[in-house]
């Protein structure tokens, strides 16, 4: 089981994904602060609305009801100006996105980050393997038009700042080109 997180912005739609521990939530929240866009965490949305379809004992986590989540988000996405943070590549409609950024982290750093979060056993190993085999990047390339999928390094605070600057510049240019 691979875990993904996306950040979507409608009107300019941006997806941001990567293995747990690569800095997606931190980047998404900071991006929302810098741009004034609304930030929605799918885990929180699912918990608040009880948008689950069972519980996965092996990974010790609830199973998301993907259809209900998409239905819940669709109206917000049509309104635009939303950053969505979640794990799952192919559940969101392609029509929602103009660009996708896949964050990548060195496996040694990622292992340490996930271990510090309490990941153990199969959950830890599967997430590290997802990063090693570029599973998230490949799934994004299969699910969406390849020209909108981009990888960004996320190993250091400096990487995070460069990524924020790059994405903010992209947003500004997109807005300029489409307004």
TrEMBL record:
Annotated function: Broad-specificity nucleoside monophosphate (NMP) kinase that catalyzes the reversible transfer of the terminal phosphate group between nucleoside triphosphates and monophosphates. Has also ATPase activity. Involved in the late cytoplasmic maturation steps of the 40S ribosomal particles, specifically 18S rRNA maturation. While NMP activity is not required for ribosome maturation, ATPase activity is. Associates transiently with small ribosomal subunit protein uS11. ATP hydrolysis breaks the interaction with uS11.
Gene Ontology BP, a term: ribosomal small subunit biogenesis
Key words of the record: ATP-binding, Cytoplasm, Kinase, Nucleotide-binding, Nucleus, Ribosome biogenesis, rRNA processing, Signal, Transferase
A GO term for molecular function: ATP binding
Positions of region (LID): 116-126
Species lineage: Eukaryota, Metazoa, Chordata, Craniata, Vertebrata
EC number, UniProt record: 2.7.4.3
InterPro entries found in the cross-reference section: Adenyl_kinase_AK6, P-loop_NTPase
Subunit structure and binding partners: Monomer and homodimer. Interacts with small ribosomal subunit protein uS11. Not a structural component of 43S pre-ribosomes, but transiently interacts with them by binding to uS11. Interacts with COIL (via C-terminus).
Name under which the protein is recorded: Adenylate kinase isoenzyme 6
Compartment(s) where it occurs, according to its Swiss-Prot or TrEMBL record: Cytoplasm; Nucleus, Nucleoplasm; Nucleus, Cajal body
Ranges where the record places region NMPbind: 41-64
Binding site for ATP: 21, 23-26, 117
Superkingdom of origin organism: Eukaryota
